[in-house]
Amino acid sequence: MTTTTNRIAFQGEPGAYSHEACRKARPGMEALPCRTFEDVIEAVRSHQADLAMLPVENSTYGRVADIHHLLPESGLHIIDEAFVRVHISLLAVPGTSLTQVREAMSHTVLLGQCRSFLRRHNIRAVTGADTAGSAKEVASRGDPSVAALAAPLAAEIYGLDRLADQIEDRQNNTTRFLIMSRQPDYSRRSDRMLTSFVFRVRNIPAALYKAMGGFATNGVNMTKLESYMVDGVFTATQFYADVEGHPEDPALQMALEELGYFTSSLDMLGVYPADPLREAQRQGDRGA
């Protein structure tokens, strides 16, 4: 009999954006905070949690470092994706007014997203360990001159006041998360499915060009293709790809079959529905 924990693991302190992603995508599950991405994966592998919530890329800052190395080696399978808008709030101890704040603490990345607001209010940026960790520290200090930049959820968890909301410079800033499980789910759960896989090309001339040809000729849209070194060796390159469609779709089936001729390895990472925000962004790009 398979036991379930009804937990979803994430990296960071409670109140982090990964925690917010857990609440958005799996509101009925208990969110389990972990110290590192490796700890998140191990929590699922060791049955401490049923699912893992892992950030893979941000619309402003690109891919999350090292995450693509971890996915193929994790032994887990992608079963869903979640897009989360990065809305930033200025959080302070209860009773604080905006004019009292002299410093704002957060992760370096978040500090860079609120430059206009901080400059306008003459608030100095201070680097903290992470977003939710900064909120936790501000709560423990009890100093009204020091605030935190974090998700609104962190205010709820650490008992802080939200002095200002949605202060980010770019309102379309979005982080993409992948939800991973011990067991794959290849069922067709939406009319817009995505397939993710990793592969290595054979050592022949123009192998990558030839490998990609099948997707073009079969009309399969590749939404992501990234390369990275394996084991620190320049000649050992692995590619991570996201494509639109289900492996049973005739077009994708033929494209993957053609890909197989030019690869030395091909491993499926997951088949899952596209987040609705993905299509909304696509429509926005078309209308721009």
TrEMBL record:
Coiled coil: none annotated. GO terms for cellular component: cytoplasm. Pathway: Amino-acid biosynthesis; L-phenylalanine biosynthesis; phenylpyruvate from prephenate: step 1/1. PANTHER family: PREPHENATE DEHYDRATASE P PROTEIN, PREPHENATE DEHYDRATASE-RELATED. The keyword Lyase applies. The record marks 175 as: Essential for prephenate dehydratase activity. This is prephenate dehydratase. Residues 196-273 form the ACT domain.
